[in-house]
Specification:
mainly beta; Immunoglobulin-like; rod-shaped; 7-stranded mixed β-sheet; 1 helix; 5 domains
Amino acid sequence: MKKVFFVIWLLAVFNFSQTPEVDIPLEVNDGAGGSAILYFGLDPIATDEMDWSLGELPLPPLPPQTIFDARFNLPNGMESSLKDYRQGTNTFSGVKEYRIQYQPGAGSVINIIWNLVPGVTGLLQDLFGGVVVNVSMSGSGSYQVTNPGALDKLKMTITYTSPSLISPPSGAENIPILPTLSWNSLTGAINYGLYIATDDGFNNPVYTDTLIVDTSKTLTSALNPNTVYYWKVRGINANGGLLYSATRSFRTIRTIGWANLQYPGNQAITQGENITAYGRVYIEGVTPGAGGGTGISAWIGYSSQNSNPETWTNWVSAVYNQDYGNNDEYQASFGETLAMGEYYFASRYQYNNGPYAYGGYSASGGGFWDGIVNVSGRLTVLSELPGVPSLISPEDNAVSVSILPTFTWGTPINATVYRLQIAKDSGFGNLIVNDSTITDTSETITTSLEELTKYYWRVSAKNISGTSAFSNTRSFTTRDTTTNLEEEPGISDFVLYQNHPNPFNPVTSIKYRIPIRSHVTLKVFAITGNELAVLVNREQDAGFYEVNFNGANNPSGVYFYEINTGKYRSFRKMILLK
């Protein structure tokens, strides 16, 4: 009855024994049918005694010499078992010694065959210090004892080397959400297994990869921000992988919790001026407290397109300005190099080389840019005021000036349109001409002035930003036109006037004056030189003429018209704008 109970107890122990953390098989055979699989390794609860809970069961004394046997002799020197585990974990690095005893059955040799995992190497020796047997063990291999009758015991000195992690260091903070993890190479490893979890027991894994062939891995799937992760590595070969590195932890980068474009939402400046824009940002545990938070980078960006700021290329580094509650405020100035036009601007932030966050403006305080509620600010860059025109012709105090004179002036900077004023008094209280639609730097009036009369004239320039001061005032006196034109012809009496209106769409009027009877041709040309229309081609008496040109069938663009009388030839430019 006691024997039955003992057998039942042994079976219970065997069935409920736990699996050791490091469990490595070792085959021993005599080449003639006798064989055994021994197991050795490590476990945290292992001792140098018989560890029943790990499946170490005592063996009876050796059988007769004609029967095969193989076993471990435990360190206590009194017991033997098919299994021998020593105290240590699967992260252990160090040396353990195991002793094997064997006897062949029908065979005459003993074969010892091993299949070691990465990080496990050994030295197989006789008990005399390796005088007879001194064999290195790694990977898969074997050794044959040819005289097992005389050499029936060997020892294995096993070196365990667990992987060692390099980066990031344990407890590291602000690690990118796509981190690069690295470790040292491990002897015998063909590839590596990387394990990441949110708990140090790895019960909540978030990443597992057992096919890494290098000693580093950059994740391609982002981890959660501001989260503590645990990671470890093991080496793997064809025999598996049992030894793990020590576990390390790291915290991923904190995220930007809120950001905006604070001010302004809309502003206009003149070319050459700057705008200063402000933005605010909040990062938990970083921006609260006095001074700018460490690790924050900020920019103000701008674009001529009202598009997503992620696509913009113009970014100006912003500097910390002040604390505002738990937020940090940054500012940057830009604009002095921008051409006239409309621009859009927004803020951008980054924490410790993490992802960018973009701030938008709204009247209620703004927030992350979304293009709907929180939008880009708007900047209008106006041209500088135009320069003051310098008068050219007629000269000051000129006399005998035509009653249909042509006025010319220099081109001031930034001018787009001009105002010509002509008056009989220097105070311009009695204006004869007040034309503010002139786009060229010359103008021939079409309403005759009085003969032998003194006039005053001046010009101002204008653009989108405003109007310049008037030029200096000049005076001139018209001539007496009672002279017979045929007796006193002069090339200056031939006049081709600027078309009006100009630009036009699609009809404009062209006026000209000839002092003597002439054969007149008036033609219109494209900017390429191609002739488009002949408006006049006949003999005409001296006088003032007007003809219309209809550009309905022509595209928008610059055109030229030319008058030719044989003695006089002139051309002017006109613009068709549809």
